Structure formats: structure tokens, C-alpha cells
């Protein structure tokens, strides 16, 4: 596993360029986005996964960060260009390869027929036997099966597969290589190469797209993993085994010829940590993905319950979980926050997740909680472990408003959470002590973000801590407590009648 300790929670940020007006309603603490144009047009500057690139590709060290940045325009909520539910390449006839390259986030190719892998040449063959002599006998497609197509710095680290369609006839048929392993279910090829131990990327780039692409096979599917990492299979094996009945294949490490009659190369992805049910064949939603996690973690949680019984908590009290951080973006008065929350009537659990924390443990804590609080960062991905209907309060440090809403706020609402984006005031930021009070760093973070990713990262992400104004924060907690109590009341009333 790549050592990602100091980068684990570091998160890429896409900078907005003044198109969206983010409107914060102080009264109910909800963030809503006003669109100043009917069609969203984001100009995004990227340097995501910078830390991992540095680790994976040492030569990148010598590049200034700006060379990673790509400016592109992004039209529409979703990159799937079709309005119809039926994606391109939905019906592929036998003996053909169809590639859908219409999405800005990922390419996907579908092959049907006599499919044989050749890992030593990074290729997958499709043998056809059209008896037409004037047919082009060899066609090929190249694809990197990873979901950050728009991010060259990441894609540069991903292995490329060549898909070769080869016409064979009676005289050339013996050139086909022999099958070592015959599979009677389809294959889904994808890469775990871009991952770095960052839980946001693991779910956003990997697991959710894997679910989107493979769930329709009802576990009758084999995963063929490029850049296979043992740590990934260890960490996500319980989820993977809810999606496939078969052992995943390590493509690079297994030089046997695997034969299939259908293969999907690459993963479909819809949006940040989301599933657009209108694009799913059987209307699956992010809640269905949540159910997969629940089933995946259930067995391990039974074991954990034996090992570490949870402290007895008052079952009458709503439970609040604080996902805490050390160092940058830590809450410096967290102990007072805990005391205040307990006074309001919550039972409070504080978690310090890091890349080595077993996910079922975090799932267990969040699955039994009513409210989750955390400061913007990759660990907010754990909102996916919350039960729909519960409350998620994201503390939004200066300069992270757009990212907090895009990556976690909006997706959390899609899961059915009650979401509160708590945007801190300059006085609640450690930067208030460091900068002149009229400095744009405090007064106009958007303009600082517009200067480039390096500024966002250096100023707002890497060295900003939060000292909550507890009086201001309190009303959100009180409201959340009322909401949870009312909900509990309701379900009790329903249970009694
Ligand atoms: C889901 O996809 C459809 C079809 O592309 C699109 O019209 C719709 O806006 C998408 N919904 C969301 C919430 O992104
Ligand atoms: C698809 O084509 C392969 C060889 O090209 C052939 O062996 C197989 O029977 C075909 N399958 C179907 C369903 O037609
Ligand atoms: C598979 O790849 C190896 C290495 O490039 C090559 O020698 C071999 O001919 C390939 N097999 C086929 C059937 O193309
Ligand atoms: C078979 O294919 C090879 C090349 O792919 C071609 O040269 C040859 O003429 C073909 N033979 C027949 C009988 O079509
Ligand atoms: C496959 O790998 C094994 C062990 O790494 C090696 O012994 C064998 O010769 C390889 N086979 C081919 C066809 O390259
Ligand atoms: C999916 O939703 C559509 C429209 O709401 C409905 O017509 C269809 O029957 C649903 N499909 C499934 C498998 O539930
Ligand atoms: C999560 O909580 C629900 C009840 O609220 C329970 O039915 C479910 O089994 C729990 N999931 C796990 C994995 O423990
Ligand atoms: C963060 O600090 C707390 C309190 O000092 C400690 O218990 C925890 O292990 C630390 N967590 C990490 C991930 O360093
Ligand atoms: C819950 O219900 C009880 C009576 O059933 C009521 O007295 C109480 O005010 C309710 N609490 C909330 C938060 O709705």
C-alpha cells in the first residue's frame, strides 16, 4: 500500500469561476445553489490526487503543480450526453467491440463473442469469423479503464489496454491462443491503479462506478482488475463479494489466457458519490448502494460486536458522531463541542478515522447514529454509511464552500440525509489570527481560489483550523436534536398503532 498517511484526507478541489452563486440561508443552515445560467458551465482547475501522483510517479516531483492543471468546460449536471436511459453500446452484437467515449469522466468498451486475454501484451482479443475477405481483419481500440478521464495527471499513471478485434478464418484459426480458463459469465475490467488510500477516491472513482456497471449481472460477473493491489482487495473484499460471486482476477499478475463471451472494459460513472437512477436499468439508487454496504459489513460487524461491545448508551438519547481530524482542518475546541452536544441531549461518540481504520467499525458507529458532524475533507465520504433520514452537518472552512457542496453536500441530499452546510465565519478560522482582517484570504476566498489550486491547497486546505463559534453552532445542534426526537416519536407512534 502506498503510504498516504500525511495525504490521506487531503482532497482535491475543483475551483469554480463565479458562475454559481452559493446562497447560504442562515436561518435553516441549508445551502442552496442559485444558477445564474440555465446550463451549468464550470471551468474547473484540477490537481487532484497530486499527492498520490507524487508517490506513484517520482518524476512528477520535478514538475510545478501548474502543469497538472487542466482547464476544461463542463456542460450539464451529468456528463452522459444522451437524454435517453439507454446508453451508447447498450446492445452490442456478437463479434463486435463498441466503445462509448461520450462521457467526460470515463470511457467504456463492450465486447461480445470469442474473447481472450493476453496480459503480457496488455491486450484483450476478440476473434471473429466473418468470411468476408475484404473486411478489415484487425481493428483495435485503446482504453484506460479508470473514471478520471478528464484528469491527465491521474490517467498518466493508469495502464492502457488494447482491445483487438481479429478476423480469423480456416487458415488463421490456429493463431488464436488457447484458453487456460473458460468463464461462463461476463467480465468487467477496471483499474485500481489511481487509488491511494483516500476513501473519497475509493468510493467515488471505484466502488460506486463498479456498482453502477456490474449490479445488473446479479453477481454473475468476474472482475478483472488492472493494477491489482492486495490492500484494495483486502479493504474492499467484503463489498466486492456482494457484487460478484467470483474471485477477482489480477490481470497483470496472471498470465493465463482467460476466455469470456462478454466483457465490459471500464466503468460507468454518473456524478460525485451518486447514482442517477434514471440511467440505471432497474432504477437502482444510491440507497441501494447503501444497502449493499450494509449487507457487506454485516458479518464483520457481528464479529466486532463480540470483540468490542459498544459502551452502553442511553437508548432514549439521539446519538451524534463526530468525525475528527488532527492537524489541518481540526476543530480546536472540539472538547467544548462535545460537552455542549451532551448538554443538549445527545450521546456523543468521537471517531478518528485514518486509512487503517476498518470500515465496518466506522459503519457500525454511523449506522447506529442520528447525526454526523465533520469538517470538510475526504473523511466526509463516510456520510454514505449513514441511514437515510439522518442528519449530516458539514463544517465548511473558508475557501471550501464550492467543494464541500459539490462533493459531499449535494450527494448527501441525494442519499436522503438532512444536510446542513455550516460555513464558518472568518473569526472561526485560524487564518483570522494570521491575516489582516481586510485581507482577501478572509474577505473573498473565491478570488483566492481563482488564482489556482496551489493557493487553495496551501492556504485553505493545509493549514486552516477551525474554532467553532459555539453559540452560532448550537442552534443547528438544537434543531437537529428536535428533528431526531420528533422522528423517533413518529416511528414510536407508528409502531404503537
Ligand atoms: C439523470 O440523468 C438524466 C438523463 O441523462 C438527466 O436528465 C437528469 O438530469 C439526471 N439527474 C440528475 C439528478 O443528475
Ligand atoms: C458469438 O460468436 C462466437 C465466435 O465468433 C461463437 O462461437 C458464438 O457461438 C457466438 N454466440 C452467439 C450467441 O451467437
Ligand atoms: C500475447 O502477447 C505476447 C507478448 O507480447 C506475444 O508474444 C504473443 O504473441 C501474444 N499472443 C497473441 C495470441 O497475440
Ligand atoms: C484468411 O485470412 C488471412 C489474413 O487474415 C488472409 O490472408 C487469407 O486470404 C484468408 N483466407 C481465406 C480463405 O479467406
Ligand atoms: C506465466 O508466468 C509463469 C510464472 O510467472 C511462468 O512460469 C510462465 O512461463 C508464464 N507463461 C507464459 C505463457 O508467459
Ligand atoms: C423504473 O422506473 C420506470 C419509470 O418510473 C418504470 O416504468 C419501470 O417499471 C421501473 N423499472 C423497474 C425495474 O422498477
Ligand atoms: C444498521 O442498522 C439497522 C437498524 O437500524 C439494522 O437493521 C442493520 O442490520 C444495521 N446494519 C449492520 C451492518 O449492522
Ligand atoms: C489524533 O489525536 C487524537 C487525540 O490526541 C488521538 O487520539 C488520535 O489517535 C489522533 N489520530 C490520528 C489519526 O492521528
Ligand atoms: C414526543 O411525544 C411526546 C408524547 O407522545 C410529546 O410529549 C413530546 O413533546 C414529543 N416530542 C417531540 C420532540 O416531538
UniProtKB/TrEMBL annotation:
State a GO cellular component annotated for this protein: Golgi membrane
Domain named Glycosyltransferase 61 catalytic is located at: 309-393
Q: Does the keyword Transmembrane apply?
A: yes
Membrane topology classification: Single-pass type II membrane protein
State if Transmembrane is listed as a keyword.
Answer: yes
Localization terms from the record: Golgi apparatus membrane
Recall the GO molecular function terms of this protein's record: pentosyltransferase activity
Q: Mind telling me which residue stretches traverse the membrane in this protein?
A: 40-61
Q: Could you tell me the keywords of this UniProt record?
A: Glycoprotein, Glycosyltransferase, Membrane, Transferase, Transmembrane, Transmembrane helix
Highest taxon, organism lineage: Eukaryota
Question: What PANTHER family does the entry give?
Answer: GLYCOSYLTRANSFERASE
Give the protein name, as stated in the record.
Answer: Glycosyltransferase family 61 protein
Q: Where does this protein come from, organism-wise?
A: Artemisia annua (Sweet wormwood)
Tell me the lineage of the source organism.
Eukaryota, Viridiplantae, Streptophyta, Embryophyta, Tracheophyta
